[in-house]
Amino acid sequence: MSDLRELYQEVIIDHSRRPRNRGELPGHNHSAEGFNPLCGDRLTLYLKVENGIVQDARFDGAGCAISTASASLMTEALKGKTEAQVEALFGAFHDLVTGSAPEESPSLGKLNVFAGVREFPTRVKCATLAWHTLQAALRDRAEPVSTE
Amino acid sequence: MIASNDRYDIARIRRDFPILDREVHGRPLVYLDNAATSQKPRAVIDTELRYYRTMNANIHRGVHLLSQEATDAYEASRERVRRFLNAARREEIVFVRGATEAINLVAASYGQRLKSGDEVLITAMEHHSNIVPWQLLCERSGAVLRVASINDAGELNLTSFEHLLGPRTRIAAFTHISNALGTINPVRELIEMAHANGAVVLVDGAQAAPHARVDVQALDCDFYVFSGHKLYGPTGIGALYGKARLLDAMPPWQGGGDMIREVSFNKSTWNDLPYKFEAGTPNIAGGVALSAAIDYVEDIGLDAIAGHENDLLIRANERAADFPGLRPIGTAKDKAGIFSFVLDGVHPHDIGTILDLEGVAVRTGHHCAMPVMGRFGVPATVRASFGLYNTRDEVDALFAALRRVKEVFA
After folding, report:
1. What is the per-residue pLDDT for B5?
2. Same domain, yes or no, for B230 and B259?
3. Residue A65 to residue B347, Cβ atoms within 8 A
4. CATH code: domain of residue B386
5. Are residue B138 and residue B6 in the same domain, yes or no?
6. In 3-state terms, chain B is what percent helix, strand and coil (to 5)?
């Protein structure tokens, strides 16, 4: 049971129910689509990047609690970051959820709530879908990103 | 119903399945993913083990004793499958990896006679394995794929099916029982309708073989396919039934050893049925053990199994009726032990993870039936599918675990 609460932390439940930054971003200059064929999760990420800095980020789509909360918390974390900082954040987040780094990383802030995902290998793709979509958006990839 | 349960010795049956003793996440395993694959009784495991320990050899070619024994056991299994399906002749039973391969075989081989403008008719409730091989065939041949619709209960719309059958329909392919919805199709009626239009019929029996008695002669279907692993047998073995007249006229689909009579660089000639369609060394151990699985299932009796699983479905429906926010997907009047549903406000994937921690194994996702998900406007469902060893207590355990889901997402 402790595993369950570690995965579904209050913050995650809250963000899955009331996702922040949801909906299309007017005036975005980057976007990409992500798809997890395993569970049918789909999301579109919109970014407004100026002078190498993420000014705003929003997402749209339907998914499980983990992928929705991940997208919601990610869009919050991105604002004001340089592209280099975003890349570093992606690396730290990936290491956090796959268990290849310690359970807490100061740079991740609120995103540390996803540490419980490491105990659920089948759910890592849910947590990282938004992040892979983010990379595609920054590189302006036209093809939807698939986790498979 | 109660009387049939008294005769159904569930405690003895459960003892036949060693895996049911194990725990997952510190809880007793409640295995409700039988539509994906079923667990194996000791008789099947022992048969496969005994095959490798005592008679392993290649078949159809050795003069030594082991090869003869292995060949005899494999061919006895073919005869067992023939009786199971009540096919007229053993030559009509082709061993394959499973239902998917069987459908691909028919699409690749029988499909060679299709031309541009011909039509293949399927239904909106098919598994991807009974969609994609026909799509590939249509791409190759210029034939057109037609899809009969289903209603909100997940039942085939017979008017749509009949309407789409026409003089250009060469093949009608449909499932006997839907894997995502549990719907039992009126296959006899559908076969008659298709034949009246001159189409040949393939029935996908992957879900039906473990739950319903199948008599291919009474059905008069042209092809019937099933997988061993859903029938409490090994993975990697299944069977294609085809009418001898049709199989005889069909070209081979894979070339290699065993499927030939004579090979020269100018020309090769083909072996007799069914070997013409069995190139290469097959899954001999799996084939031998499949016969043990069929014995096991028929000893209990398919009618008794269907009755037991229907009891479990009734129990699940009762529990679901007073579970707030639960919406069953697939409510056909004629339905097998497949209970597919969604819960308000919780994604199936999250439900699956929480159920797993409670020891309850279900399938979550699109069940290889993405068009069905689209039809019901959901990205995925949770599917509990019952097998011959499941109990009412396990149905209750599913709903107790679903209450945990509600607590977490309260």
Report:
1. 53
2. yes
3. yes
4. 3.90.1150.10
5. no
6. 45, 20, 35
Which residue of chain A is at minimal alpha-carbon distance from B373?
Answer: A40
Last residue within a domain, chosen from B241, B272, B298: B298
Q: How many CB atoms lie within 10 A of CB B108?
A: 18
B326-330: long-range pairs with CB below 8 Å, 24+: B326/B402, B329/B154, B329/B180, B329/B181, B329/B376, B329/B378, B329/B381, B330/B153, B330/B154, B330/B178, B330/B180, B330/B181, B330/B182, B330/B183
Contact B168/A at CB under 8 A: no
Domain residues for the domain of B223 are: 45-298
> Which residues in chain B show pLDDT less than 50?
1-4
Q: Are residues B343 and B283 in the same domain?
A: no
Q: H-helix or E-strand containing B204?
A: strand B200-204
Number of domains in chain B: 2
Facing residue for A40 by CB, picked from B353, B354, B379: B379
- Tell me, yes or no, whether B37 lies in a domain: no
Range of the domain at A138: 2-146
> Which residue among B298, B314, B339 closes a domain?
B298
Contact B409/B344 with Cβ under 8 angstroms?
Answer: no
B105-136 residue pLDDT tens: 999 999 999 999 999 999 999 999 999 999 99
Residue A140 has pLDDT above 90, yes or no: no
Indicate yes or no: CB of B353 within 8 angstroms of CB of A42.
no
Is the CB of A126 less than 8 angstroms away from the CB of B349? yes
For tokens 């399938």, name the residue: B363
Q: Which of B342, B347, B403, B406 to mutate to test the interface with A (most CBs of A within 10 A)?
A: B347
Contact B211, B336 (CB under 8 A): yes
State whether B348 and A8 contact (CB < 8 Å). Answer: no
Are the beta carbons of A39 and B346 separated by less than 8 Å?
Answer: no
Q: Quick check: ipTM above 0.85?
A: yes
Residues B306 and B290 in one domain: no
Q: Are residues B174 and B131 both part of a single domain?
A: yes
Whether B329 and chain A come into contact, CB under 8 Å, resolves to no
Nearest by CB to B409, which of A5, A13, A68? A13
Q: Are residues B369 and B229 in the same domain?
A: no
Query: Would you call B221 a catalytic residue per the annotation?
Result: no
| CB proximity B18 to A under 8 Å | no
Set of chain B residues whose Cβ sits within 8 Å of the Cβ of A65: 346-347, 350, 409
How many domains is chain A built from? 1
Structure tokens at B66: 């082991």
Q: Is B86 contained in some domain?
A: yes
Catalytic-role residue among B239, B368, B397, B402: B368
In a domain, B107, yes or no: yes
DSSP 8-state code for residue B358: T
**What pLDDT was estimated at residue A143?**
75
Residue B177 and residue B94 share a domain: yes
How many beta carbons lie within 10 A of that of residue B162, not counting itself?
A: 16
Query: To the nearest whole angstrom, how far is the Cα of A110 from the nearest Cα of chain B?
Result: 20
Give Cβ neighbours of residue A69 (< 8 Å, ≥ 6 apart).
Answer: A11, A12, A13, A14, A15, A16, A19
Query: Are B144 and B193 members of one domain?
Result: yes
What pLDDT is recorded for position B223?
98
- Looking at the domain assignment, is residue B319 inside a domain? yes
Pull the structure tokens for residue B201. 């019929």
